Structures are given as C-alpha cells and as structure tokens.
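Reposting from the mailing list since nobody answered there.

I have sequence plus structure tokens for a pair of proteins and want to know whether others read the tokens the same way I do. The first protein:
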Amino acid sequence: MAKIKMIELALQGGGSHGAFTWGVLDRLLEDDRIQIEGICGTSAGAMNAVVAADGLDRQGKEGAREALRSFWKNVSKAGQLSPIQRTLVDRMLGRWTLDYSPGYLFFDMLSRLVSPYELNPLGINPVKDLVESLVDFEHVRHAEGIKLFVAATNVRTGKLKVFRREEMTADMVLASACLPFIFQAVEIDGEAYWDGGYMGNPTLFPLVEECQARDLVIVQINPIFREGIPRRAPDILNRINEISFNVSLIKEVRAISLLKKLIEVGDLQDQLYKDALFHRINADVELAPLSVSSKVNTEWAFLEHLHDVGYRITEAWLEKNYEHLGVRSTLDIESVYLQE
C-alpha cells in the first residue's frame, strides 16, 4: 500500500481560469495517496478552497469533488444570462477569448468611466447568492476539517488580510474576489476589502506557519514568463494583468528563499521554514494563449476544457513528483521566480 503524503495547497486567483484549479483539485482529491492539511486561496482560488473544504467536511473526498463540479456548473449557468459572450466568429474559429465581444468591450470601457458605486448603487453581487447556496458557512466555521485561509486586501491600509476557517463567511470569500472596477468594496467589521490578488495571490506564510505538512504546492494560473513584447492593446493589458497579479507571490517567494538561505548558513533559526518543501502545478503553455478577457468567459465547454487541462497536468505531475513529496522541493525557486 502506497504511503499517504500530506500536503498544503496555495491557490492563485484568475476569474474563470480558476476552473483549471478545479481540475487540479479534482485529481488530487481522487488520489488516495494524497491528504490535504490546509488550503489558502485568493479570489477564484478562495472559492475553490471554501467549496472544497465544505465538501470534504460533509462527504469526504467524493463530496468535495462533487461540490466543486456543482459550483462551476452553477457559475456557468449564471453566466448564460450575461451580455458578455463570445462572438460567432470566435466560436467558429475555436477562440475562447472575448477581445472582440461587443458586450465585453462595452463593459470594459464603462468600468473605466463609471465606478461600481454609480453603476450598481445597491451593490448587487450574484456571486454571493451562488456561494451561499452551495456552502454551509455555519458548518465550515465549526467543523474540525482542513485548515482554511482566504486572502483579501484592506482598502484603507493597503495591507494583506487573511481570514481563517473559524471566522469564515460568504462576505470574506467575496472580499477576496472583489475587483474594484466591477464590485463595491466588501465591508467587514468596519473595514473595506478588495481582491486579495493585490497583496497575496496566493499568500504562503499561513500554510508554512500554521500547518504541519512540509510540502506546499502552489497552483499557479497566471504565467510568469512570456516570449516577445506585447504590441496590441489587448496583449499589453493582458500582460499588465499577469504581472500585477503575480508580483505579490514573487515577492513572498523571494522572502522565503532568503529566509531559507539564512537558515542554511546558520544566521537564522527557524525550523518551520527550514523544513518547508515547495512545489508548483501550472499550465503556462496551455493558458498562455488565453487573454485576460477569457477570465470572464463562463461557458461550460470552456470551464470543462480548463478543468481537463488541470486534471491532466496534475496527473502527470503526480506521476513525476509523488515520490519526491516529503523528500525535496521540486520547484526551482531561483529559476522560476528570482532569476531574470
């Protein structure tokens, strides 16, 4: 019988590209050799984390897998009512992006001219109803399940805020996914919050400091590297989006790398960071052709495609790296995050 390996998961946000993470989680949950001790998520990663945690608490791994499928299926159903859809030409050419969708272009321009406080004065957020209908937050707060962390950005202080399982509410998940050009800031206990991606996408320190497992797996959606210089306006905006939502992760990994080096030479004593092993599941090649506009594409066929990519890549990752879990890091931090 194969040895059970305990891991922690750090889930990056990225709109509907979070369906890639759904596929990653689906494959990990399917594997009886893998146990998840803790999950930290941002934006779509936070939604995946909370839905998976609630499913695990109530019906184990199969319950979590079914809960995740149900969540993304309902996301797709809600998106059917949106005026932001692919054009006929995009469909005929098999493109998942919305760069030339009249609905997308209109709302993109409108969001630069009109704030959500003017456009949506009642602060209606359809995602709230969806999350509340699928997650029993009362149960999440009191269950003794996996450790759960959700990242948001404090609007007033500009600092990272990490919400934990014992206090978790739907508003905290919405705060983690609150893009300020689309939604009003989410207010919790007198403080306003925006998308956690600005300060921690995802954040790693809660997992290292509050979990016992040595192996931390980063599930990354936004590509770090791209060939060439973007020259078209949509390509420039897409690259700005990727860099902006990767910068906090790069800085945190850089700090952790420095800590580990100081520990290795004896200048610092910290067993938690000394023992931490880092891994990464990503799909830079598969997701690179998708522009930022595709992050609002919620067609079921697209979400299933992303899920299948995540599932397939994770299967290959497990085949290659399972034996290294608990032994060594498979993520080369220097080459991926630090070297120019």
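The second protein, same order (residues first, tokens after):
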Amino acid sequence: MSLFKIQRAKKNSGHTNHRLRCVLWALSLAISFVGMPIFALGASYYEGKTLTIVVGYKPGGGYDRYARLYARYLPKHIPGSPTIIIQNMPGAGSIIAANHLYSVAKPDGLTVGTFNNALTTAQLIKVEGIKFDLTKFSWIGSLASDAVILTVRSDLPYKTVEDMRKAKEIVVGTTGPGSSTHDFPAILKEFTGINFKLVPGYSSSSDVMLAVERKEVDGRAGSYDSIKPFIERGLVRPMIRNRTAAEGIEKLPVDEELTTSAKGKAIMAISAVPTKMYRPYVAAPATPAEIIKILRDAFANASRDKRLLAEAKKGKLTIDFSPAGEVLKIVREVLSQPPEMAQEIGKYIKF
C-alpha cells in the first residue's frame, strides 16, 4: 500500500525509447573518448560546464546538508572545475528523484544525485511508483554509513526501554513511510511492545526536530549523525539503536535484542543493511566509464580533503566514504532476499 501519490509513469513505449536514447547517447560519448587520456578528457569535458546534484529531499535535512558541503569542494577535485548547483527534488520518499536520475537525466556525467538509502528495501518489496533498477545506476559511492536511533525529549521521564513500554503513548514525528524517521519506530512498535503513535507528514528531518523542540511530539528517530547535535545540546535522549554501532552509542539497547520474534529480528537485521550506505550517490545508467571514473575519483578525493573534513566536523557531519563496488554489494545483498522475506518486510515497511 502506497501512502504517496506518485505521478503516473509514461507508457512503456516511452520508457523504452528513452532508455534507447540514453544508450545511444552514452555510446556516442564513449566513441568520442576512445584514445583520450582520462585527465585530458576531464579537463576538456567539464571546463565551463555545470554539474547538477539532485537531492531527493527539501533543503535543510541531512541529505541536503551533505550535498551542499560536497558542492563547495568538488570543483577543485574535478579537472575543469565545473560549476556545481543543487536541485532539490523532494517527494515520495525520494522515489521521484531516483526515477528522474534513472529515466530523465542524461548519461553525460553532468547530473548526479542522492536519494533515500532505504530505496534498496523499496525495490525489494516492489513499492508502487518505482521506475528504476538500483543495480543499473552508474554508482559513485556513499559519503557515510550511520546508525539509526530512536530518541525522546530529555524533559520526559523515559530513561529505559521498560519506561517506554509502560507509557500509555509516545508520540513520534516522522517524514513519512519509507524513511528511517518512520520505519524504525514503526517496526519497534510492532515487535517490542512500545506504543508509539507515529505522526507523519513533516517535510524534512529538520522539521521533525523543530516539532520536538516545540514539544509538538515526544521524540524522533533517524540518522544518529543528524540527531547527535541535539543529543549534545541536551534536547533529546537516545534510547534505542539498530545493529550499526557508532561512537557514543555503543551501549544503547539494540532493536533486535528487544524482541523475541524471529520474524521481527530478521526484519530488523535486513532493514539495517542499507545504513552501511547512508548517503548514496549515483549518475545515470550507461554513463561512460571514463566520466564515471572522474566522478568517483572526485568524490573519493573530496572525502579526504582536509578543509572539507574540518567543515564537516564543525557541522557534526561524519564522512566515511565507501566506493562504488562496496555500495553495489550492499544493494545486491538487500535485493537478493527471497520472495517470502520480501513479502514479510512489505507488511511493515511502507512508502
């Protein structure tokens, strides 16, 4: 069941024609690059051009903050120093952005993008509106891995999981199904006996945190990296994490340890896999190898840039770059789940 209205896809013939045009475009680029050194290609190809980073969420959230950070440093790591702009394309848990990157963006290396890492799970359970195959993107890598945690306001009396189990109701704000802000507490509610009331509809994780500050909701879940500054401020208290550990929350109760349900443990384990690629980046399918190598090298080198790392640290953003090959392994691990497991996951995770 989809909770989002997603624009209807073009007719199959239109998609086929578009994919054919993309392949022909990529082929023509590849032919023109034969024999050209990579550095020469990069310097000549990107000089005077604009590289667009598509972000599947509105400004202000974690995906947007990472994109804007990298946009400031990538030009010096790409021969030709292109201008870089951000195009926010929110909607449907970033499915709209992923569809755009897959079927609309040209395979010319001038458009890259980032979307919800949980789209791996969305593809596995065949969410309505998906018009992409994650295995066919031209993968660049992932900027970070991250834990997913659940927090409550520090002024509330909940200090242990048992305290939360005794609560009549704990209100958790979310951006909607398909995001860690929603799915993590939804699965906890189903399998741990904690009565969370989920309030979806916030347009970004930063808006959810604003609701926490205003005491409109009792807590929020999501990326530890995004929530950490608010923990340090004393606004929220971390309560539960997934199996992905991070410095400072190693001793938090792990979701899988809080249920006796074998099905619940399995769903929690599979749901945690995409957090190893928490900030994924791709280019369009069939982007020529010469161009995708330039982009991969640029993102990898930017991730080691001392000035970028200093700014990331100041902004409480963790950089932990994973190359394309490692990310694709994670994607395939999720998508290789048997149909019966996909069916079970689909009962609890919605987009």
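Reply #1 (J.P.):
I read it the same way you do. Residues 12-144+279-348 form a domain with the D-Maltodextrin-Binding Protein; domain 2 fold (CATH 3.40.190.150).
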